[in-house]
Design a protein that fits this description.
The chain has 6 helices and 7 strands, in the order βααββαβαβαβαβ. It is globular. By secondary structure, the protein is an alpha/beta fold. The protein is about 35% helix and about 20% strand. About 45% of the residues are buried.
Length: about 230
């Protein structure tokens, strides 16, 4: 790991995985998540350019949410082992993800620079709690908030395509892969590729941008909302 002072250290790229762990994720989907998390760590550890700037938090949500991994250097993270529980509450997951990013960025130290954070939201179900999750989504993505994040959302299985699209800030995807374990592995491989390609883009002359490579996957990008003038 390179040594930098706060002034010399490259700007950090804060990322949060927001993962549905409701009971519908039991079996192959949860097993795939638990297999993929250490693989993400290994891949980043072998890629110094990404590891230099990417920082990862992991939030799980069901009826409630918790940050099972605070924002940390991926190469040195103790990856959590997840278990299924409860129902599906998007509001809890989104709120906890925003908090994890905000707390983690504040913990970088005074004068530390960072790129706009990104939440990768993954669900196989539909929000079934009696609260409107869109208010929290709008809060944590507000352009007026210096911690405001972009959200890339992924749906599979019984997820509601419209809800998956509305969670996102522009990048929303759905896989028609019939095997749920394979679907999860494909999504998390895409997340890893996105972290790597986005991280590498920050060294470009244009300053970089969020990138989600889809080549070789069965993921379909969902269309953005269309609006009309009243």
């Amino acid at each position: 790991m390179s040594e930098f002072s706060n002034v010399e250290r490259p700007a950090v790229f804060p990322v949060c995985l927001c993962i549905d762990v409701s009971y519908s994720m039991a079996g192959p989907p949860m097993a795939a998540v638990n297999e993929a998390l250490p693989e993400i760590k290994s891949a980043v550890k072998s890629d110094p350019a990404t590891g230099e700037i990417a920082r990862l938090a992991v939030v799980t949500f069901s009826d409630r949410a918790k940050a099972v991994l605070p924002l940390t250097d991926i190469a040195y993270a103790d990856m959590p082992v997840l278990s299924p529980e409860g129902g599906t509450n998007f509001d809890e997951g989104l709120r906890a993800s925003g908090d994890a990013l905000r707390d983690g960025i504040k913990g970088l130290g005074k004068g530390s620079a960072y790129h706009q954070p990104v939440i990768f939201f993954i669900s196989d179900g539909e929000h079934n709690a009696g609260v409107d999750w869109t208010h929290t989504r709008n809060q944590i993505t507000s352009r007026d908030d210096k911690y405001g994040a972009q959200i890339v959302s992924f749906g599979f299985g019984q997820a509601n395509r419209d809800a998956i699209q509305r969670v996102s800030t522009g990048f929303a995807f759905f896989t028609d892969e019939s095997d749920p374990g394979t679907a999860v592995r494909e999504i998390l491989r895409t997340v890893l590729r996105s972290i790597r390609t986005t991280s590498s883009s920050f060294s470009s002359a244009t300053g970089g941008a969020l990138s989600v490579p889809l080549d070789g996957t069965k993921l379909t990008q969902l269309p953005l909302d269309q609006r009309t003038v009243n």
